[in-house]
Amino acid sequence: MNIRSQRQLIGVLSTVLTICLVGCSKTSKPKDVKYNLYVPATHLWAGQGDSSFNRIYIYDADSITLLDSIWQAHFTENLAVSPDGKWLYVVNRTAYNVPRTLWKIDVQTKQVVWSRSDEGMGGGGAGFRLLKNGALLLLGNDVLQSDNGALVQRLDRSPHAMEGPESGTMVAATVGDTLVTVLDVETGKTSGQFVPRDSSGNAMMSIYRARLHPDSRRILAVGLSYGVWFVVGDIETGETLFRHRIYRPYGEIAISSDGDLAAVTGHGTPAFGEDGPVYVFDLQTLSFIGPTPAIPGAQVRFLPGNRRIVTAPVPDPGFSDAGPLLVINLATMTLVELIWPMPTDPPKNENVGSLGIGPRP
Predict the structure, then answer these.
(1) Is 326 helix (H, G, I), strand (E, B) or coil?
(2) Is the separation of the CB atoms in 87 and 115 below 8 Å?
(3) Neighbouring residues of 97: CB distance < 8 A, sequence distance ≥ 6
(4) For the chain, which terminal residue's Cβ has fewer other Cβ atoms within 10 angstroms, N or C?
């Protein structure tokens, strides 16, 4: 092959390579992911037993605009969204003295895939969690297969399972009133120990909430010890990394998707006129960022971008909470939007259930 032919061949190969690189870069560019905010609500003005008004309202989580709704059976006590956003797992009940029912719902078709009702079914509170990238569902002390609702195993009640990252099978768990450990819900084995303490070194008299950080090492806990404290500890060494005094127990601990921020709420119930701030912490610098304005809310979720949170009252079928849902800008610690109650005529008396956020299918 002569020099001219070689140059022509090199030119052709260069052009092909350029086209391939451009094309590959375009096809490999990650698609922008949109997120939905799911807001279950029970319209309490409807007649007893009339569930036609019970809905899970679907909002665009960025713009907070209403997109659609899904009928629900009764009051939604718990709600979880699958990692791919295709499924909702909903725990419904009509009153305190009746069994709960767990539903798996197809978000796109709005159809129930399966349901599970069991008087002995564990349920509620910190123990409702999707794990193992959505393959397992932790409901109280019951570990279920999320694809069909089959019982994998029923965990011992001690340690008491709390919360952990969706990607794995481990959650924080409390033992008695003072100790936090890590529980693998698949094997039932525990590892590590952490005793949350106040600034004087006193162990907590009672641990209200505990959550395993996505790094699988740090424990975030809220407990009572001559006041209420938020504490971050190292589960492997048992060392206390950070503590801060707060003034409202019983709420939630939320962690941003990047793992850098934590938000802690109280138990505000609008029916009782209770309110309090959300406490926001930087988990990188282990510092207190600040309180939000006082709100009547116990639920908190980070919205996409991790610089806004949405808050709501504790889901409780026994109270007429009627919202509100509030969006707060964490950069300014100011209220930026009121989502709920919805502007209707006449106004609807609605009890908000457990909030959920997940990618749009």
Answers:
(1) strand
(2) no
(3) none
(4) N
Instruction: Report which of 278, 302, 297 is spatially closest to residue 357, judged by C-alpha positions.
Output: 302
Q: Are 231 and 221 in contact (CB under 8 A)?
A: yes
Sheet containing 308-312: order of strands: 299-302, 308-312, 325-329, 334-340
**φ, ψ for residue 2 (rounded to 5)?**
-80, 175
Residue 66 to residue 59: CA distance in whole angstroms: 4
Q: Which amino acid is at 206?
A: S
| Separation in Å, CA 235 to CA 173, 205, 214 | 11, 19, 13
Tokens of 34: 């949109």
Predicted TM-score (pTM) of this structure:
0.85
Taking the C-alpha atoms of residue 338 and residue 334, their distance in angstroms, rounded to an integer, is 12
- Asked if 320 and 313 count as a contact pair (C-beta separation under 8 A), the reply is no
- Cα–Cα distance list, 32 to 29, 133, 307 (Å): 9, 20, 18
Q: Which residues, in sequence order, are bridge partners of residue 282?
A: 261, 287
Helix (H) or strand (E) holding 228: strand 228-234
